[in-house]
Amino acid sequence: MKHYTEEQKSIIRSIDIAKYTPKAALYEQLAEEASELSQAAIKCARCIRKESYTSKTMEECEQNLIEELSDVKCCADALQISHSDEIVKYKTFRWKQRIYEYSSAYNKLVNRIEV
What we know:
By secondary structure, the protein is mainly α.
């Protein structure tokens, strides 16, 4: 990476990415970064299961996942897109609801078989 003066760094920080990058290109970059995030998550799962040999440690896989998530966030920020706390709250509840429903159904089935 190049070395910049503090003045140059200040100018660089003030650049509006969206002003210099076409919106379609920002969406394409977001899609590319999201795909890389997906691949990093899959590699974490493979590392946990010790499947499909990877030379990376779990710590390295998780660090790569964080880097890819950060890339997605950079693209979303450039597009001025942010998450919705309401949607996150709803989706988290639905996820927990599915766990509850599955575990309840599973427990009923196990109890019926044991009787």
